[in-house]
Amino acid sequence: xxxxxxxxxxxxxxxxxxxxxxxxxxxxxxKDSPDRVKLGDVAEDADHxxxxxxxxxxxxxxxxxxxxxxxxxxxxxxxxQKSVWAELLxxxxxxxxxxGEIAMKLGRPKASRAVGAANGRNPISIVAPCHRVIGSTGxxxxxxxxxxxxxxxxxxxxx
Length: 159
What we know:
This protein has about 160 residues and is an alpha/beta fold. It folds into two domains: about 60 residues; about 80 residues, Winged helix-like DNA-binding domain superfamily/Winged helix DNA-binding domain (Arc Repressor Mutant, subunit A). The protein is about 35% helix and about 15% strand. The chain has five helices and six strands. The protein has a four-stranded mixed beta sheet with strand order 3-2-1-4, with helices on one face. Strands 5-6 form a two-stranded parallel sheet. Helix 3 packs across helix 4. It is globular. It starts with a strand and ends with a helix.
């Protein structure tokens, strides 16, 4: 099945939105590694309803009027990755968690590195807020969009 794509501007650079008929599959960064999110066949479709909805909600988020996304999501990954991504969705707007805290929530206190690897493969950046995951010391750590974008998103959420 071919996935639909649409590229939209944002304050953190052009974002490529990817959707299936079931939901949003990915939000890719301008300089995203092609190996980070495996997609298969894609085709531009600016009229895809999920992509239009995602673009509108991202616009509201960047304008400071949306604190929660309401989009159908179509996560594609391992069961462990999906469990990490579900925990990302539970991090409240404007708050952060450490990799270790997420590992504890999953009942796997020694899995913080695995949580970090799954976080790095999160295909739906911003909506599944991997930018809200920081190091245990409070330091900003790796982010597919770059640390400047991560700092921007956290600053946006802190007001």
